[in-house]
Write a structure and sequence with these properties.
Layout lengths: L13 H7 L17 H14 L13 H14 L1 H15 L46 H7 L9 H7 L3
Helix pairs in contact: 2-3
């Protein structure tokens, strides 16, 4: 039993191609013409993006999967897809087909608790007596040991006597 040709129903129409074709880059290389047309390759790219299949599963009617993937990656790297999107948006905006309203739902876009000035939890900050300068950094256990006159190195106890200063 033959499979149904379901790939052609989502291909570009002639009207869509007439809008898209002027936005495509022109070929610069002289020589042998390409084996596959840009319309076929773009239809293959659109098929792959729509279906979500691996590149190797692109139907042969759109060209070799390597050629379809190569065109997609080349245009992605050089910014052609972004230029095509910008051109299509400009055309649709000029025709009044795009409404540029922005709506932000505050139940979704919330600030982080630290950004809102919430009190820090788990950090004990004692008040400094008047007249004494407040330290600009927290006291570590090494600072406390040095203030008490104890060795301040992190070596093992057996090596502490020979390597640490008091």
């Amino acid at each position: 039993m033959d499979t149904l040709p379901v790939t052609a129903r989502a291909d570009l129409t002639d009207a869509q191609w007439a809008v898209l074709e002027p936005l495509l880059p022109k070929g610069k290389k002289p020589g042998r013409p390409p084996k596959w047309g840009k319309r076929q390759l773009i239809d293959g790219i659109r098929w792959r993006i729509r279906v979500g299949s691996p590149w190797r599963d692109v139907p042969a009617q759109y060209g070799s999967w390597r050629t379809v993937y190569g065109l997609y990656r080349r245009w992605q790297r050089d910014g052609t897809w972004a230029r095509i999107l910008t051109g299509l948006q400009a055309r649709a905006d000029a025709a009044g087909l795009i409404t540029w309203d922005v709506s932000v739902d505050s139940t979704i876009a919330r600030a982080h608790q630290h950004a809102a000035g919430a009190p820090k939890k788990g950090i004990y900050r004692r008040n400094h007596p008047a007249g004494l300068p407040a330290s600009s950094r927290p006291t570590t256990r090494w600072d406390a040991r040095a203030a008490a006159g104890l060795p301040s190195c992190t070596w093992a106890v057996s090596r502490a006597a020979s390597r640490c200063r008091s």
